[in-house]
Amino acid sequence: MKQLQDFEQATRLQPVEAGRWSVDLPESWGLWSPAGGFITALALRAAGEVSSLPRPASMTCHFLRMGKYAPAEIRVESVKAGKRSELLKAELLQGGKTLLLCHVWTVPETLPGLVHDSTQEELPDPESVPTFEELYPDEPSHPFFDHFEQRPIRGTPQKGEAARDPELTGFYRFTPRPVSDDVFADAGRAIILMDTFGWLAQYPAHPADGPSPWIAPNIDYHYRFHRPTTHADWLHMRVRAPVAENGLMSTDGQIRDASGKLLVSGSSQLMCLPRPGA
Q: Which tens digit of pLDDT belongs to each residue from 191-221?
């Protein structure tokens, strides 16, 4: 059995020249095309290579077109640099066409300022939550989801379940190695979860026995990095899809550590498209 690449290995960059890298977009990190969260994680890691500051603060992404499972290129340039913050522009291209355009703000490890936190939550012990395989013993899983262990708390609907609030929650631990020491690379775990499960969050509101007749590529995504993620083997995710109308669907996501501290949050807008072959 072939061992899976962990997310840190999969997002490593091959330098081409200053501010340019080649990357691979493998099918193992894709769904109907290279996953938006995966290519965003690549762009964030590249931004970290250029930034003069050690921590991401926020990231705004625009998805221009779907990619293919093939090599691609990332370009990063610093737009504005100061002692307290730096803005970088990251672009991922394939075949000369831009797939993803991002702007990333970075900051020092610590900054003086106001201190408060009203987001703390009490969470169960991750090990006490049943696994995906225990909860869904007959549910086939796409190979993409082999990259992390899933322990759903409010999962996708089971057969015959009534419609409910479009929200998913649970604990997730990446395999075979759960964390990376690189702050920018490790933040990619949160990006991958919120991007992937954002679309799936609509399923509780539209329960069906088979695949949805729709897919919904992201138009954009905005991430806020409140704290580093490198200490957290288990990530708790809550993602909602509160509004879907007129061909669009919005999502809101939050990533916490097992103690309930908020690490990353984000929001996106998606565009519904007919599933190919449906």
A: 999 999 999 999 999 988 777 888 888 899 9
Is the CB of residue 247 less than 8 Å from the CB of residue 228? no
C-alpha to C-alpha distance for 198 and 250, rounded to whole angstroms: 8
Summarised one tens digit per residue, pLDDT across range 82-127 is 999 999 999 999 999 999 999 999 999 999 999 999 999 999 999 9
User: For residues 72 and 26, is the Cβ–Cβ distance under 8 A?
Assistant: no
Hey, what are 127's tokens? 């090990």
Q: Which of 253, 152, 137, 135 is nearest to 199 (CA)?
A: 253
**Which pair of tokens denotes residue 103?**
């702007």
For residue 150, list its beta bridge partners.
Answer: 172
Which residues are within 8 A (CB) of 133 and not within 5 positions of it... i.e. 6 or more apart? none
Dihedrals phi, psi of 148, to nearest 5 degrees: -150, 150
C-alpha–C-alpha distance, residues 111 and 53, integer Å: 12
Domains of the chain in sequence order: 7-110+123-274 (2.40.160.210)
Give 247's DSSP letter.
T
Residue 24 near residue 68, CB atoms below 8 Å: no
Angle (CA) 64 70 96, round 5°: 50
